[in-house]
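Holo model, magnesium ion. Inputs:
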Amino acid sequence: MPKLEVVKEKLGALKGLAEMFLGPKDVVGIDVGSYAVKVVLFKLEAGAYTLKAWGHLPLGAKADAGPDEKKIAVINLLRAFFIEKGVKVKEVSTALSGNAVIVRYVKFPRLTKLELLSTLATEAEPFIPFDINEVQLGFHILSEIVEDGQKKMETVLVAAKRELVVSRLEILQGAGLTPAIIDVDSFALENVHERIRDAKEGPGATLYLNIGHMVTNLSIVENGVTRVVRDMFISGNTMTKAIMKAFQCDAAKAEELKHSRGVFVDPAEKEKALADGDRDGLGVSQAVGQVARDLVAEVHRSVDFYLSQGPDRSIGRIMLAGGTARLKNLDKHLAQELKVPVSVLSPFSFAKGGEAVPEALAPAFGVAAGLALRQNRDWE
Ligand SMILES: Nc1ncnc2c1ncn2[C@@H]1O[C@H](COP(=O)(O)OP(=O)(O)OP(=O)(O)O)[C@@H](O)[C@H]1O
Ligand SMILES: [Mg+2]
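Output:
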């Protein structure tokens, strides 16, 4: 299928390979989430980014539909958005994550990029838990090192199940768009990190938690380079499910409770809720708090893994992204549990003018903003 060949090239374009082919300069970043599709278009003028267009397109009831129905819903949302906003740019960068995407840090013997390209499937096979014939592969060379007297390359390998790639392409093409880059959610966030990084920030790596609806993307960025990528399935929907169970209510009611309440972090707040008989507040805090604690346990595992990989490593800060970053007090709760400063991502803080994204929605745009940044960083 010729389409797949195109994808192969595009996935090869992942990060470092992007400069190998000349593409259009403007790309629209499209993050197809299970809860909402996020769209971002920047324009780079005189060294400054302007936010030209953005869209937060919730799937609503279609979020629970079957894959085909959902696909059509996303196509319709995107079509309507491009028409309504009059966006002329049709080239798109998009990202994947979840259990059909594998990111591995692998040391290969030193090869040229072309040699690696031609032997990639063979070299990669031992590291990929899927049938190598059913995946699209991409790689990025991080650095060249000498280990045991041998020259090696530290490489990031990405394998995405072809099914998932094809399905994403079908959505974008169905909406009349041209897929130009396929990235990974956590790597898209790295682009935003580069833009918003405080030059005076203290030591230690930044841990990103992009807490969406079905998946949480965890990544650890050290000196601008992502060193750990892991996806876990404790996320916004897990919280909604916990509330449904606690309150014996439907998903819509549970979402409403989740959005209006949150987790108690201050004992005085909890005491007041007890005294007032605030059963909703107490119930939501308990249900959501348990999910947050499960998340904390997973974060500890990833941090331990990262710390065990070398000396002088530490986590300096945690950045929350994704719609669930807005859960009331989640930042404070995580800071208490993990004993690291926690902030909520503001992914447009570097952009000027344009139409502002409401603060309540902004953290959910981390991936889409990072995707929209791909144009200038990689192709110029
Ligand atoms: N104010 C809020 N309080 C709590 N949760 C919120 C709030 N706003 C949004 N959410 C939750 O954020 C989640 C959606 O976040 P996001 O848009 O990042 O997900 P997604 O990218 O569509 O999903 P995924 O990447 O997991 O497929 C939903 O579970 C939603 O209920
Ligand atoms: Mg998402």
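The chain has twelve helices and 13 strands. Confidence is low (pLDDT under 50) at residues 1-24, 376-380.
Archived with the compound record.
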